[in-house]
Amino acid sequence: MKFYDDEISSRLLIGTALYPSPAIMLEAIKASKAEIVTVSLRRESGTEQAGQNFWSFIKDSGAKVLPNTAGCKSVKEAVTTAHMAREIFETPWVKLEVIGEDDSLQPDVFGLVEAARILSEDGFQVFPYTTEDLVVAEKLISAGCEILMPWGAPIGSGRGLNNIYGLRSLRAHFPNIPLIVDAGIGLPSHAAAAMELGYDAVLLNTAVAKAGDPVLMAKAFALAIESGLQCYQADPIEKRDMAAPSTPVAGLPFWNQDHA
Ligand SMILES: CC(=O)[C@@H](O)[C@H](O)COP(=O)(O)O
């Protein structure tokens, strides 16, 4: 699978915030088998982890860094943060978040499209955190995005896939665009469900970082994602309203007698 110019094999992208300690974070990243970690510049700048040390620590994890603009609420703030990220991490990748509302942390899709256009024209490879709205998706693609990251549910809510119908429609409309469910995942089964819908990958943070045992939870997610992917590749059966006997009755000894 390709994310812009890069060949990617792991279907799990993992966040680097909220862990009990940097050591547990590194162990959890390893256990998740994620190749890509996302780092929030704004969030980390306001914590004790800020500064060169934290950035080098992340670089040392060996994972590819997807800087993000988490917490940005305007186009200007998101664009400036993306530029800082490009300088620090020397990558054209940016996970673009433009938050429009405080209770749901819902993306401001108008600001998102505008920021995506500005950054794409400036050579960034944008991973937009969006809703499942098809029209917004079209506009993001026209703005230069080659990947979409619809939310599963509000960030940190752990609710899973709030709108399976919308996510399925998005998959059907954009069969050739890499789609990553981002945010709101609470359980490994939620991540498996996203992969079973044919999504290319899942990005999550809180469900692992805030678990009682983040390392064990990271392993559970790695297994669930693999299971969901294999399920999709195996072409699962369609749901039916009526029963369809799975045990054949013709040829059984009592069948003829009872039905003769
Ligand atoms: C880390 C990051 O990028 C978050 O903004 C992201 O959307 C993950 O959300 P959860 O913490 O709900 O998994």
Q: How would you describe this structure in keywords?
A:
single chain; TIM Barrel; three-stranded parallel β-sheet; binds 1-deoxy-D-xylulose-5-phosphate
Short description, anyone?
It catalyses: [ThiS sulfur-carrier protein]-C-terminal-Gly-aminoethanethioate + 2-iminoacetate + 1-deoxy-D-xylulose 5-phosphate = [ThiS sulfur-carrier protein]-C-terminal Gly-Gly + 2-[(2R,5Z)-2-carboxy-4-methylthiazol-5(2H)-ylidene]ethyl phosphate + 2 H2O + H(+). This protein has 260 residues and is of the alpha/beta class. It has 11 helices and 10 strands.
Topology readout:
Blueprint: E1 2-3, E2 6-7, E3 12-15, H1 22-32, E4 36-40, H2 41-45, H3 52-60, E5 64-68, H4 75-89, E6 93-96, H5 109-121, E7 125-130, H6 134-142, E8 149-150, H7 164-173, E9 180-182, H8 188-196, E10 201-204, H9 206-209, H10 214-233, H11 253-259
Residues 15, 17, 38, 68, 70, 95, 155-156, 182-185, 204-207 line the site of 1-deoxy-D-xylulose-5-phosphate.
